[in-house]
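Example: Helix-turn-helix transcriptional regulator.
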Amino acid sequence: MDDDKVFKALADPGRRMLLDRLCEKNGQTLGQLCETMDMKRQSVTQHLGLLEQANLISTVRRGREKLHFINPVPLYEVYERWIRKFEEGRLSLLHDLKQELERKKT
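Written out as structure tokens, the predicted fold is:
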């Protein structure tokens, strides 16, 4: 995984909104995505290109149409690498706090 490409792609609110739209309804065409975005078709195309370079979306041709699909794997890899380890520590602290509070009750 290329973390830099993923983080760069996720840094832009327009690209995050495109991912949200694909999460709501996967397999949309450029035209369908443009209908829900407040930006020009060329801008949407550029954003989709960056998302594809970051492997956050994939495309499939169906006749003349190009369908866009979200790829959650890079997001999961970011979670595994950068988020999960912080959650484990926090959950461990909450567990210890719970144990301490329960001991004080008795």
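The longest helix spans residues 73-105.
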